[in-house]
Amino acid sequence: MTLLHVDTVSRFFGGLKAVDQVSFEMESGTIMGLLGPNGSGKTTLLNLISGFLAPSSGKIIFNGRNLAGARVDKIARAGIARTFQLVRILPSLTLLENVMLPAVFGHRAHWGKEAERVAHAALQKTGLGDRANASAGDLNYIDQKRLELARALAAEPELLLLDEWLAGLNPTELQEGIRLIESLSGSGITIIMVEHIMEAVRALCPRCAVMNAGRLIADGETSTVLSDKAVIAAYLGDAEYA
Ligand SMILES: Nc1ncnc2c1ncn2[C@@H]1O[C@H](COP(=O)(O)OP(=O)(O)OP(=O)(O)O)[C@@H](O)[C@H]1O
């Protein structure tokens, strides 16, 4: 079943085409890497899908409904959650309080004990289960990233958008992170992951799409896409192919 259809979506900032007529579809339960050089429009595209920005034109059809331009809270309720490149945890709250908020305001709008159960489950999945009452402000970098992911998972999304969630991890943490995303994907969540770490893309994503200067320049089987001339040129900055 098609879960997401991004249909000729564009977003301009003044004269800059940050996202330019991008189209793709995703089947439910699949995982896709979203690649591209710095400034190519990847985060803007995630912002458009998650409602942090409205598209200048085009449709974003999720579960059959066009969500283009809808408010962030409506999109979260519809079943889309995301992580941010710079983590957005609430340092003055406990880990549990951090994940309770999306459990309440996310896809299934839980209350009371049920919200607490979902929040605990999200902490458990990300390896923070035994620290629910610790202060988020005391976490080290990897644990902040885990909490950022737990917040997205507590919203119980059907579509999870990861914006360089693996960036900055050491080699051991990276392997743990890859296993964690693998298990999420195995549990049926549909995932788009913006990622620069090719090892992770190859390990996790049978499909990847590549952006350059706002346009989608490739979309297909990962090893084919990564050996595509235009993709290599985009990464190397060769205007002839890019
Ligand atoms: N709010 C904004 N206002 C103006 N320009 C913006 C805004 N957000 C992004 N841009 C511009 O849009 C283009 C695409 O940026 P975007 O952050 O989406 O790229 P990216 O592929 O995610 O890059 P990176 O890999 O460095 O995160 C860039 O030229 C950027 O400067």
UniProtKB/TrEMBL annotation:
Keyword Transferase among record annotations: no
Keywords: ATP-binding, Nucleotide-binding, Transport
PROSITE patterns linked: ABC_TRANSPORTER_2 (PS50893)
Ranges of residues in domain ABC transporter: 4-238
Domain of life: Bacteria
Pfam families attached to this UniProt entry: ABC_tran, BCA_ABC_TP_C
GO molecular function, one term: ATP binding
Entry annotated with the keyword Iron: no
SUPFAM superfamilies assigned to the protein according to its UniProt record, in alphabetical order: P-loop containing nucleoside triphosphate hydrolases (SSF52540)
InterPro entries, per database record: AAA+_ATPase, ABC_AA/LPS_Transport, ABC_transporter-like_ATP-bd, BCA_ABC_TP_C, P-loop_NTPase
Secretion signal span: none
Protein name per its UniProtKB record: ATP-binding cassette domain-containing protein
Species name: Hoeflea alexandrii
